[in-house]
Amino acid sequence: MQNKEEAKHTLEWKPGARLLAALSRLGIPLPSLILLAILVITPLFVTDPYVLRLLVISLYFGVQAMVFDFTAGFINAVNFGFAAFVGMGGYTSALLVINLGMSPWLGLIAGTISAAVLGFITGILTLRLRGIYVSLMAWFVGLALMAAATAMADITGGFRGLIVPPLYETVTMTSHYYILLLIGVAIYTLLRVIIKSRIGLAFRAIGQDFEAARASGVDPTKYKVINFTLSCACAGLFGAYYGHFIGILSPDIMGTGHTVEVLALSYIGGRGSLLGGLITAFFFIPVFDYLKSLMELRLIIYGACLILTMILYPAGLAGLLQKISQAIKNLKMGEK
Amino acid sequence: MDLSTVWDLFVTGILRGGLYALMAGGLALLFGVMNICNFAHGELFIIGSYMAYFAHVTFGLSPLLAILVATLGSFVAGILIEKTFFSTLRKTSKGEWVMNAFLVTLGLSVVFQNGAQLIWGVKYRGITQYWEGTIQLTPRMAIAADRAVAFLISIGAIVLFWLFMRRTQIGRAIRAVSQNERGAMLVGINLNNIHTLTFALGSMLAGLGGASLLSLIPAYPFAGVKPNIRSWFVVTVVGLGNVGGAIIGGFIVGLLESFAYYFLGQGWQDVASLVMLILLLLFKPSGLFGSEVKGVLER
User: For testing the chain A interface, which of B110, B240, B270, B280 should be mutated: the one with the most A CBs within 10 Å?
Assistant: First the structure.
C-alpha cells in the first residue's frame, strides 16, 4: 500500500521533474524559476501605481545590469560606453516612430538592430585591445555618440530632448511591467543558453586567462565580437523601450553617469552571476526612492557600495551568497 | 583666415594646454607608478577649486596664498585618499588590480561629486578674478592677467615637478618604482611610502589646476567632469603612463581644440576630436609616443 502510494507520488511528479531537468540542462536552475514566479505574481498584490512604477524601473535597471554582466563578468571586458548603446537604441526607435510614423513595436526591433550594429563595430574596433583599453575605447565611442546626439539638435532636439510617443495609446503601468518582464525573461534565457553552450565556455576561458584560451584554440576575436554584439543589442532594446516608457529622450541617457549606475548594480550583485545585478536592483532602487528628496545621498550610497564591494569582497553579493550556501553545505556534511 | 587669427588661436590653445598638461601629467603619473586609472581625477581638481575658493573668499587670503593653501590641501587629501582606499585595496585585491582600482576611483568620483552637492549645493562658487588687468598680446587680442598668471603657475609647477622627478632622490625612487616594482623594493625603497607620495603628487597637480583656474572654472560639484575627460583624452593620445608625453600632449590637445573649435564650432568639435582619438587607438593603441606600457595589445 505504502509502496503504491510512493510510486504514484513519483509518477505525479515526473513531468515536473523532467521539465526542471530540461530547463536546468538549458542552464535555468530552480532558484531563477522561483525568482521568476515571485516577479510574475508581485503585481497582482500591488495596486499602488507608485510602487508599480518602482518595480518597472527596478526591472529596467536590473536587466541592464544583467546584460552588462554578460560582458563584464564573462569575457572580463568592461563596456564603459554602455549607456551610449542604450541611447542609440532609444534614439533610433524614437526618430523612426516620429519621422516615419513607424509602429513603436517595430521601433523596438529597429533600435535593437542599430545598437547591435554599433556593438558589432565597437567589438571590431576593440579587437586588438585589452583590459582597460577596451573600456577606454568603448568610453570614447560612447562620448562621441553623445556629443553627436547633442550636436544634431535639428534632428534630436539637442539638450532640450525629444518627445517620444508611447508604445500604444492605452498602455498601463502593469502592462509595462509585464512587457519588460517578458523581454527580461527572453534575454535571460538567451544569455543562459549561450553561457551553457560551447560559446559560453569560450567566453569564460577568455575572461579567466586570455593566453591559455588562445593556446587551446579559442579565437578571442570571434567571441569578443559575438559578446559585444549581443549585449549591445539587448542594451539597445532597453533604450528603445525606455524612450517610449518615459516619453522624453535627451542626450543625458548616454551619459557616463548612467553607465556607472548599471555598472555599480552589476558589480555589487557579483560579476559573472547574471541575476546578482537584477536582485540588487530590486533592493537598491526602491530603497533609494525613499531618499528621493536627497538624490545626492542615493548616489553617494551607490558609490560607497561600489568602493566597499571592490575593497572588501570583489565577488559581490552573489559571491557572498555562494560562500554562505557552501558553508551551510559543509556544516550539513559535517553533521552526517 | 589671416595670420593674426592663427596667432590668436595659437595663444588660446597654449593657455588651455597649460591646464591640460598639469592635469594629464598627474594622471599619467598615477598610472605609470601605481597602475591606477584614476577616473576621479576631475574630483581632485574640484578639491583644489573649493579649497582655493574658501581660502580666498571666506578667509580672505591673498590669491597666491590661497592657491598655495589649496595645493597643499590637495596634497594632504591625496595622502588621505591613498591611505584609506588604495592602500587597503592593495592588501585585499589579489589579481585584477587595474580593474578593481579603476572601479574604486569610479565610486570615489560618484561619492565626491554628490558629497560636494550634498554639502555645498549646486551653487557656483567662483570669483571674477584673482588679479586685475589685462595683457595686450596682439593689437586685437588681450588676455586677462589672471589667465596669464594661472598659465605661468602651471608652467612653473610642471618645471618644478620635472626637476623633482629628475634631480632628487625621492623623484628617482618614484621612477624606479614605475620601472620595476620588485627591483625597487630590492634596493630598499619603501613601496608604501612611494605609492602614497605619488598619489599625493598627482592629487596636488590636479588641485593646483583647479585652484589657479578658479576665475575661469568656478567650484561646483560637477566642475571636474570636463577636466577629467580632457586629461583622459590627453593621456590616451600620448599613451597611458607616459608623464613626459602627457605634458607635451596637453599642449597638443589644447592647440588642437582651439583650432577645431574655430573651424567646427562647439558641438562638432567634440565629435571630431573623439573620432580622431578612436582612430588613434585603433591604429596605434600605445599612443603617439608609444610608451612601454605592457598589456595594451593582444600580441
Answer: B110
Interface predicted TM-score of the whole assembly (ipTM), two decimals: 0.86
The answer to whether B48 and B211 have CB atoms below 8 angstroms apart is yes
Residue A180 makes CB contacts below 8 A (sequence gap 6+) with A56, A59, A60, A63, A241
Spell out the per-residue pLDDT of chain A, length 336, in tens.
445 554 445 445 566 677 777 777 766 777 778 888 888 888 888 778 888 888 898 999 999 999 999 998 888 888 999 999 999 999 999 999 998 988 889 999 999 999 999 999 998 888 777 778 888 889 999 999 998 998 888 888 878 888 888 888 777 888 888 999 999 999 998 998 898 888 888 888 888 877 788 888 888 888 889 999 999 999 999 999 999 998 888 888 898 888 998 999 999 998 888 888 898 898 888 887 777 667 778 788 888 988 988 888 888 888 888 888 888 888 877 766
Contacts of B268 in chain A (CB under 8 A): 147, 151
Closest residue by Cα to residue B204 from B48, B20, B62: B48
Dihedral pair phi/psi, residue A249, rounded to 5°: -130, 125
Residue that the C-alpha cell 571586458 belongs to: A77
CA distance A300 to B110: 6
Distances (CA, A) of B286 to B101, B172, B225, B270: 21, 24, 24, 22
First to last CA, chain A: 31
Structural domains of chain A, with CATH: 52-331 (1.10.3470)
CB contact under 8 A, A140 and B274: yes
- Nearest Cα of chain B lies from the Cα of A214 at a distance, in angstroms, of 10
SS3 (DSSP) at B132: coil
